[in-house]
Amino acid sequence: ASIDENIKAASAKHPLVSLGDGKQYTYGTAGFRMKADLLEAVTFRVGLLASLRSRKLGGQTIGVMVTASHNPAADNGVKIVDPMGDMLEQDWERHATTLVNASSDDELAAIYNKLAVDLKIDLSAPAKVIYGRDTRPSGHKLVAALADALQATNTEFVDYKLLTTPQLHYLVRATNTEGTPLSYGKVSEAGYYEKLAEAFVRALRGRRVQGNLIVDCANGVGGPKLAELLKYIPKDKTGFHVKIVNDDVLRPEVLNLDCGADFVKTKQRAPPSPKPVPGVRSCSLDGDADRLIYYYVDAETGFVMLDGDRISSLAASFIGDLVESAGLKDELRIGVVQTAYANGASTNYITQHLKLPVICTPTGVKHLHHVAQGFDVGVYFEANGHGTVLFSSDALSAFKTKEPQSPAQKDALDTLAALGDLINQTVGDAISDMLLVEVILAHKNWTLSDWAMTYTDLPNRLVRVEVGNKDLFRTTDAERRLLSPVGCQDEIDEVVRKYKDARAFARASGTENACRVYAEAATRSEANELAERVAPAFSAPPPLSPSDPWL
Ligand code: G16
């Protein structure tokens, strides 16, 4: 049978569910993401696109990750990873959208062929796709649909089964660079652990981690994967003692439920279970282990959170100091990338205290990643804990080839070289970021409260608002201002003017069927009040309950 017939026959097994009202499936902040029962055909079609992408790029390996990350267990999602481990090139997102919305099997085959003609793709050239999934039960069915698409298009593939999202990104880059001078690591899950564990020990440079760390894994794939990584890290040599909690991957309904990085960040409190012990260093991953939030409970003042903005400023300050000690300050450009959600106090700290440039982009790591690539050391984190540090090839080679003029300079260069291996260069990776934070705290001999003292967060509140049609909300200025619905921004401006040092914005979520409202002000009660007054411009916000920490 021809490829065309194969595609049509395979597609018939995975019929597209209509969204009704002429609504389209769209490639959003993190690929296609929605209720899992809508995604089988979508995933099949993403498989077709991944095969086209691989053929377009000379047979390089493309990745497909099946995950809905921080969303509830009933959701799922699918996204494409480009050869160097980056997110799919943005120009191709519209091809994904076109292909996925084909209204019949015949039309699907026709669009597939038209894309091949328009993009000058040789359909008989070799193609390779690798894929993984998180722990959601729906993942099985979705990867089966994906495999059908890869078979129908004669695409070679490897099913890596359960992976964290950043592990899949690692594997894509490792596969494409294998045997070249740019080799990113061994092409296996074990290779990922070996690389991180070795770089962690090297980056510590004989220092020891102080005190235990409790890691809440959101009952997601990060639990078993972190447990695996720990087998590769020598406890005696590093002092790295970890207690993994919330690692139940057998009951899907508990995924991201009352735990995990998204819960901690949006609720601004520790997961209720296990009961927080005052003073203990804790952190939370999200459902696919690409977000990280640190926190502790102070016996007197209560919960203290160290979010993505904190990790960003900690990393920028530490790496900035190392670059200076290494004598590379005049050669390497360091910059920080944030989104509108970044706490104003963090932006001030980075620009005024660290004296580093900050660029603001729309939400979505794909946007931040792209801008961070413009620096030699590009630190990017979303406030929600999703981010990493990118090093240019000039920076990496300077760390390895610059002749040190003193033992201190050698130490700085060796630490930087180790960080280049420790920090995932493909995408934000909670496990790699956690090791980075642990290294920095060990170097500075800091507790979390030392870290928290670097600046004081402006009180803020994030509200999720259910709206009829979130697509009506269009923004500009890196999502800080609304273009439509007309008049909405004026209403926000009017409310904001009534508060001191205040800021608020609203935007449609790219991963949930809702809008998000963010408000920041001089005091906690004002931030709450501001959010509560802005949110009704769209619909009523959820009422605060008496036990709410904001009250
Ligand atoms: C995804 C994206 C993040 C984004 C988050 C929330 O995270 O990768 O960049 O910050 O969604 O996006 P939105 O506010 O548009 O819903 P994750 O962890 O869910 O993959």
Layout: helices, strands, pairs:
Blueprint: H1 3-12, E1 32-35, H2 40-56, E2 61-66, E3 75-81, H3 93-100, H4 105-118, E4 128-133, H5 139-152, E5 156-162, H6 165-177, H7 189-204, E6 213-216, H8 222-230, H9 235-238, E7 242-245, H10 260-267, E8 281-285, E9 292-298, E10 302-306, H11 308-325, E11 334-339, H12 344-353, E12 358-361, H13 365-372, E13 377-381, E14 387-391, H14 393-401, H15 407-422, H16 430-444, H17 448-452, E15 460-465, E16 474-476, E17 481-484, H18 488-496, E18 503-508, E19 515-520, H19 524-534
The structure holds 1,6-di-O-phosphono-alpha-D-glucopyranose (G16).
1,6-di-O-phosphono-alpha-D-glucopyranose binds at residues 29-30, 69-70, 286, 290-291, 363-365, 382, 384, 386, 509-512, 516.
As laid out across the biggest beta sheet, the strand order is: 1-3-2-4-5
Please report the number of helical segments.
Answer: 19
At the first level of CATH, the class of the largest domain is Alpha Beta
Largest sheet: 5 strands, mixed
What is the percent of helical residues? 25-40%
Structural classification: alpha/beta
CATH superfamily of the largest domain: Alpha-D-Glucose-1,6-Bisphosphate, subunit A, domain 3
Q: Runs with pLDDT <50, length 5+? A: 540-551
- Mean pLDDT equals 95
What is the count of β-strands? 19
Shape: globular
